[in-house]
Structures are given as C-alpha cells and as structure tokens.
Amino acid sequence: MSKKVLVLPGDGIGPEIVAQAVRVLDLVNTQFNLGITHESALVGGSAYDETGSPLPEATLTKAKAADAILLGAVGGPKWDGLDMAVRPEKGLLGLRSNLELFSNLRPAILYPQLADASSLKPEIVAGLDILIVRELTGGIYFGQPRGIRTLENGERQGFNTYVYSESEIRRIGRSAFEAARQRGKRVCSIDKSNVLEVTVLWKEVMEEVAKEYPDVELTHMLVDNAAMQLVRAPKQFDVMVTGNMFGDILSDAAAMLTGSIGMLPSASLNAEGRGMYEPCHGSAPDIAGQGIANPLATILSVAMMLRYSLDAKEAANAIEAAVSRVLDQGLRTADIASQDSQTVTTQAMGDAVLAALEAVLKA
Length: 363
Ligand code: NAD
Prior knowledge:
This protein has about 375 residues and is an alpha/beta fold. The protein has two domains: about 1-100 and about 270-363, 3-Layer(aba) Sandwich (Isopropylmalate Dehydrogenase), CATH 3.40.718; about 115-265, Isopropylmalate Dehydrogenase. Helices cover about 40% and strands about 20% of the residues. Strands 2-1-3-12-11-4-5-10-8-9 form a ten-stranded mixed beta sheet, sandwiched between helices. A two-stranded antiparallel sheet has the order 6-7. The longest helix has 18 residues, at about 15-30. The chain is globular, with a radius of gyration of 21 Å. The site of nicotinamide-adenine-dinucleotide has 23 residues, from helix 4.
C-alpha cells in the first residue's frame, strides 16, 4: 500500500533544507522499496503571499490525507507586521490542532563528533541520546478559566488552570511507551506530585499504562530533580514523558545540551501515529538564500518520520548512520564548524549524506 507524505518547505531556509531531505527520502524509498509518494504544498508566509492564508484549505486537505508531513520552517521579518490571525505561525498551529498532534517527540542527540559544541564537559554529553515526549495540546497552557482579574481591593490577579483528564494522560503515556519500545525500553515520567494534584493523577495513570507495556521499565522523577539531572548526568535517561509546561522547559534545556540546534529533529504525532516532522530550529532569515544552512536536522526528521509514522525502521537507522559517517569525515556546515573541520554548503552536505547512505547500504 502506498504511503503519502506531504512536503511543506515553508519560508526562509525551509525550501533549501527540505530539498536535501527529500533527496534522502527518495533514495531510501527506492532502496528499501517503501512505496512512498510525496507532493508539496504551501504553508506559512509563502502561503500567505500566494493565497492570503498561512494555511490554505488545499494544504489542510492534503495534510489530512497524508500519512506524514515533512515541514521546513515558517516565518520571517517580512511577515512580522501582519495581523496575528494570518501570521505564518498560525499555519503551524492550525496543522497541529486540525490533525490533533498532541504528542511532541524531541530527541536530544549529541553525536560524539560534536561533543565540543556543548557547554557541558564532553564526557558528560558525548553520545547523549534521549527523547523528550511532551504533551502538546493540554495542561496549563490551555486550561480554563484563565485571565487577569481585578480583586475587590483593587489589586490585579493573574490566574491559569492546570488540568489534565485521564484520557489525555493515557494517550501521551502510550505515545511515550511506544517510542520507548523503538529505543532503550525505559520511560521516566516527570511530575510534581509532591505539590500538584494534577500530577498525582498523572503518575497514577502512567502506572496503569505501564501495565500494557511489560517490556518497558517505568520510573518517576520530580521535575525539579529532572532539571538538575539533565545537566548533571543526562545520559541516565532514555525516554522522558511529561506535560506541556514542564516539557516546554525541559526540552529546550535538553536541546541546548547538544549545543547545535541545526542538528535536532522533532515530531508531533496524533493517536493514529500520523505526524508532522520538522527541525527544531526556525526559518533562519539571517542566512536564507545563501545556501549555507545545515540540512541535517531536517534529514534526521525524515529518519524520525520513517521510524514513527511509516514503519520503516531500517531505513531510519540507515539515514542516522549516514549522518554519523558524514560527521566522521569532518564535513560541517558553518553553524557546527570547528577549527579542523571542512565547511561545506547545504547542497554539499546533502551530497555527502547521499554518498554516505549509498555506502551504508552497501556495507
Ligand atoms: P531560528 O532557529 O530561525 O534561528 C536562530 C539562529 O540559529 C540564527 O542565527 C540562525 O541562522 C541559526 N540557525 C537556525 N537553523 C539553522 C540551520 N539549519 N543551519 C544553520 N544555522 C541555523 O530562530 P529565530 O531567529 O528566533 O526565528 C526566525 C524565524 O523563524 C521567526 O520568524 C520565528 O518565528 C520562526 N520560527 C519558526 C519555527 C518553526 O517553523 N517551527 C520555530 C522557531 C522559530
């Protein structure tokens, strides 16, 4: 059965990095006989310029019909003055809510070859490979009631509601356990159950979900300790699962452990495992059009897409091995360059990954 991928290059460096990622997708598609077809559509600022909407109806229809979406990035100064309702970011938010992409998977991987890029000591981070699973559509960011009110004594008071229902916790739990099955088979659930009732329930439901996955180990950690452990000994973790707000903060901290945002992919999945895959970075307008952007985060997003939505784990492994080979060869785009590396363009990095992929597949 053919699998459909929707490609959304977006704005800024988006089209440049996505072009390289699509070459990689095409090669594994042929080599592994995956039966993937893909088509492109507009999103973000470029969609607004063409159609007056950052998420045109035609794009949304194609997105709903796709098994997976590969996105570059959206936004840029050209569109910063627009009304909030038609800002490029609305295109992304619209896709997330329409497709119910509640599970955000953000790996923090530090290739040993890039250990110097981290602000932590190389021995603490070299070989780091953790996955943060963040609930994306609930929790305190969406809870009602919310607002700023004026009390009787005239003082203003801000308030939000931290709420999670059992079903919301269960589905993000399953998402984390499924991901752990594809990796090191360990889930650490992060909560604040010593203070917040919501996370007492979170912890209980995680225990229930764990019973469905006897092959995966579940542990719990308080969020303050988790933040500390992430910078003290991050390699102790395999999969970390947590709510929207804690995940927002912990995943950025974990990303910075690697020191190179141009290397980090991400996925946002729905209950059926369909998802949107994109680099963690933005559209980098400062370097757009120069052909120097790092395409590796987007290429690694293709690997995640193959693993989590397209049931093609071997192809995913091959891409990740090819990226590692290219780093071994000393090739670097400007953002990850060091003194003894060879600085290459976006296109040359794409060429090198394709060549390495051919070599991996022959080996
Ligand atoms: P950014 O991630 O685009 O750029 C931050 C810095 O990192 C810049 O110096 C940029 O040149 C560099 N950088 C980022 N990706 C790179 C790559 N692949 N190769 C080499 N260098 C890279 O963040 P920003 O500057 O805060 O935002 C720029 C625009 O992107 C804004 O309009 C913002 O709203 C948008 N944005 C979009 C997304 C998304 O589409 N998911 C995410 C974040 C920001």
